[in-house]
Amino acid sequence: MAPDDSRPRWEQRLIETTEPWNGWSISRVRDRIVLRVRERGRPAETAYLPRPNTWDEVHHRNAIRWIEAVYKEWDNGEKTLKAAIADAHETSDLQGEEKAKTWAEIADAMEASRVQQSQKCSADTFRKNWRPFIDHAVKLINTGKAHDGYSLLKAALKNWEGAPTMKVECGRYLGLFMQFAVSRHKAPASWLITEFDKDELIPKAPKPRLKAVLKDLEMLRLIELADSVNVRWGNVFRLLTQFGLRPIELQHLSSRINPVTGKPAIWCNYRKTGGEEETEPRFLEAMYVRDANDRPVVWPLEQAMADGTLKLPTGRDGDVRKLSGSAVNCYIHRKSRSTGKPSGAVQTYWAELVDHYDNQNPSEWLRPYSFRDTYSIRCHREGVPVASICDAMGHSEAVHQRSYRTMTLGIRTRDFAAKTTTISLP
Prior knowledge:
The protein contains 17 helices and 10 strands. By secondary structure, the protein is mostly helical. The chain folds into 3 domains: 9-91, no CATH class; 97-201; 211-414, hpI Integrase, Chain A, CATH 1.10.443. Strand 1 and strand 2 form a beta hairpin. Helix 2 (60-74) packs across helix 3, helix 4 (97-117) runs antiparallel to helix 5 (123-142) and helix 10 (231-243) crosses helix 14.
């Protein structure tokens, strides 16, 4: 097929691919791309490129790479045209129907590698953090909207427009996914996403918001309001406050005797193996709050759990609910269907606290995880050694220093306060 100047430039590029090769030509049958080889002394051959390499602008670049790979495999007529297409399929970064399925298989293989083999994260974490990015990438590849690592990242980032933090995460997870595909499943190196690609395409992540830490009396007030509605949720907030739990750890608690004190204690068997904040099962340590009279107070949660009297939220079947960050978040942000406003006293007070901290300068981010951040601050305020704080919270000192607040204006002011004599200015 001879080039036609009236054709779009992409179509001209596609047609011109075979011009240097004697006897080769490209034609179109409906939306399919057809290769033809006519050489003197041998039968003419015709074959379709596999889908989704169709005759359109979206797929033409990938189609050109297909054609070049087929010509290389054809090896001056040593193979038939159809055999060359089949062999090219296995040795290049081509996306046909069979290859499209392979990307989904690679995604599943990566999940098995991270969760089962290396145990770098839980199945739930992979599903929540990795899958949204990987599944979207597989869809882009299978529909021909990406032909290498750079174009994949560029297309994928459009799905998270206006969310700079998510764009950073997208680059990180897709970069690791493509490394896995290339190193373990022989995907072509052109699918790698380089740091140069990320630097060009991903905007700098915004500075993390300052995490809010609740005042002791605010937590006591929240618990008081929860008790007035449902004491079971009051106990959830007591556990989060007194032990600085990750919300997901609420479903991993049991009663054990502390071998040092000989008294009932709460054992957390949650094991976090992925990411920066690895966690081993541990005994929990209560950190008191100060009441309106500045007295340190605790609740007898350890004894109540040992006695079986610690009431926690139940489901419709009457069994204790499987609590998590999502469950706590849903409860504390519950809104009325009719008015769209916070549904009760607890939710109203929480909304007021969120607004209060958001309006600080600088703005502070209040969320259910703030109970854990506040536990950290109280420990520092009361002079607990850092090593003990970290061990009780289930993370390393490096993670603690990097990820948790260790100082507030109140603590700093107290530390610099002293009884002094003022010398008059001249």
